[in-house]
Amino acid sequence: MAITAFDFEKPIIELENQLLEREKQEPRDEEAIRALREELERKQREIFENLTPWQRVLLARHMDRPHSMDFVQGLMTDFVEVHGDRGFADDKAVVTGFARFRGERLCVICQQKGRDTKENLMRNWGMMHPEGYRKAMRVMRLADKFGMPIVVFIDTPGAFPGIGAEERGQAEAIARNIRDMFTLQVPIVCIVIGEGASGGALGVGVGDRILMLENSWYCVISPEGCAAILWKDRGMAERAAEQLKLTAKDLIALEVVDEIIPEPLGGAHRDPQTTFKNVGVALAKNLEMLQALPVNELLEQRYLKFRAMGKFVELQQDEATSSQSE
Amino acid sequence: MAWFKKEKYTTLKPPVMKDRIPEGLWTKCENCFNLVLTKDFEENLKVCKKCNHHHRLTARERIAMLADEGTFQEMFSNVQPTDPLGFVDSKPYSERLKAAQKASGHDEAVVVGKAEIDGIPVGLGVMVFEFVGGSMGSVVGERITRLIEYCTEYSLPLVIVSASGGARMQEGILSLMQMAKTSGALSRLAEKKVPFISVLTNPTTAGVMASYASLGDVIIAEPDALIGFAGPRVIQQTINQILPKGFQKSEFVLEHGFLDKVVHRKDLKKTIALFLHYFTGQKPRSWSDEEVTEASENRVSA
Questions:
Q1: Is residue B21 predicted with pLDDT exceeding 70?
Q2: Which residues in chain B belong to E strands, given as ranges?
Q3: How far apart are alpha carbons A279 and A286 in whole angstroms?
Q4: What is the CA radius of gyration of chain A?
Q5: CB B169 to CB A162 under 8 A?
Q6: Contact B131, B108 (CB under 8 A)
Q7: Nearest-5° Cα angle at B189, B178 to A218
Q8: Residues A46 and A102 reside in one and the same domain
Q9: Which range marks the domain in which residue B243 is found?
Q10: Could you tell me the maximum CA-CA distance found in chain A, to the nearest angstrom?
Q11: What is the complex's ipTM, to 2 decimals?
Q12: Domain presence at residue B163
């Protein structure tokens, strides 16, 4: 199989190759094959249960990793795409539309990366422009109007930093989306499936439930961006990835993410079907839970969810005044 | 090779003036390098008389300039920073915080409270750029959110003066989520029809610009302030082109429709008061009866 492997996967690839050789050998040595299989699985577990944050970042960017539209195709039926922000253009870095999931109507918002250079040029590597955020909001408002839950697949290296993006108000587009997603009167489930970089992700990321695939990341800045600013060296990205606490497990601990969706051994790209199945199970469960809530409670819980985020110390008022006068 | 080539002109060092001038009497403009008497400079609200460059104000100076004398009461200062990630770059974040507190004379990157602007009561937030680049971490997000919620509860108009490089990296995802927290609170303020005036000063970018700073009912900026989402260096590196002159400056942002007004610092307070009047119906204290009559006469004659 032509799968790109990372350095840390080398022992696995070696074992896989040995196994292939063995299986071809005549007569087949079933005993040895079984032993190799066990060894392979043991090795895979050992490596994948101890991935470093940086290794997960690499996996999240793996070129064969399923992208947003793969999930729509793998999980849903009757997808119909709608285009354009009705103001400027149709941003192809985000695919928006409606689909049926287990027979129910849904609105889907997909931050979409490409598979090859040609497609990536069209999709702008999954980096949205202001018109993309405005398109997403337009379609989410349709969902609000016609009573469809919204599912957002998050996978972006960031909102696009360019001249046109600034001229057309990238900051305003993101800010407005963030604010207005609090007012949409339908359930919103956000699933980080690959990269969740900064405001580019949050601009479509205000949801009632935030789920993350096991090997995805979500952070205020990319490890490279952070390394360039704090260490003045993009090569320190691995170190930055450790410091930033950006893995799914970290985000559960920081009380930002609700649930981790497990990936098959070796990462989502090794077995997309199992990945789709796992996401489908999590999505169905969360949608059902949210749809049982009355609208006012849904909105109140969404507000309180984000209201509670952040870590600080709260001094007694008199302590504060004394520390101020110091 | 080129032995006949003209030699470079000798550069003479300018005489060192510093020795002859008493410390602090003169201030040099950051932009045009002209010397101005410090007293005049301060009186002109730290705006250069020659080139109109608006120098940065500290949060205290900003509050003194906007709030009526003696009306500012700080709130929520009991919300204090911590180091949630145990973040270490060249030094631990906890030490960075202490150093920033010492250097800036502020405990965090925003000061919030109640004040009166020309007699009109408001909730006022002022960001402290000197504190880790005015970056927004959990404390900035929490103080701003509490201020917004206070304004929502008491129908108090909100004024926030921003100066920030964006979200604070050292608090990771928690900093990002402050954008959601503050914006969510603003959606409730808007629902209650309480006005929010966002004032942008140099610089206001990234996470702060992509949340509350962009969500004012009106957005006012000081001249020549850097305003945008991505920093100019990042954009330049991404697209590999020279950026146009004046790119991401207040006047550019106004031209593209994302600001209501660019206002000279000396007019800032009265401009805010005027908007507060239009949005709340309350009259600024400084409007004498005469002025009002005059204005209405003007209207009749026009």
A1: no
A2: 26-28, 35-37, 73-75, 79-80, 110-117, 120-127, 158-164, 196-205, 218-221, 227-228, 261-262
A3: 11
A4: 22
A5: no
A6: yes
A7: 20
A8: no
A9: 57-265
A10: 85
A11: 0.94
A12: yes
Asked if residues B179 and A199 have their Cβ atoms less than 8 Å apart, the reply is yes
* Closest Cα in chain A to B107: A324
Dist. CA A155–CA A164, nearest whole Å: 22
Per the structure block, which two tokens stand in for B120?
């009109």
Inter-residue contact A128 to A110 (CB < 8 Å): no
> Token pair 């970018």 is at which residue?
B205
> How high is the mean pLDDT of chain A?
94
A171 to chain B: which residues are within 8 Å by CB? 205-206, 209-210, 213-214, 228-229, 258
The residues, any chain, with a CB within 8 Å of residue B243's CB and separated by 6 or more, are A163, B232, B235, B236
Q: How far apart are CA B194 and CA B185, in angstroms?
A: 12
Low-confidence ranges of chain A (pLDDT < 50): 1-2, 322-326
Contacts 24+ apart (CB under 8 A), A32-38: none
Regarding whether A139 and A112 lie in a shared domain, the answer is yes
How far apart are the CA of A163 and the nearest CA of chain B, in angstroms?
Answer: 7
Q: Number of folded domains in chain A?
A: 2
The answer to whether the Cβ–Cβ distance between B167 and A324 falls below 8 Å is no
For residues B70 and B176, membership in a common domain is answered with yes
CATH number at residue B145: 3.90.226.10
Q: What amino acid occupies position B298?
A: N
pLDDT tens by residue, B95-145: 999 999 999 999 999 999 999 999 999 999 999 999 999 999 999 999 999
CB neighbours of B25 closer than 8 A, spacing ≥ 6? B37, B38
B164 lies in some domain: yes
Asked if the model's pLDDT at residue B299 lies above 80, the reply is no
Residues forming a β-bridge with A145: none
Say if residue B135 is in the same domain as residue B173: yes
Structure confidence at residue A316 (pLDDT):
83
Peptide bond into A27 cis (omega under 30): yes
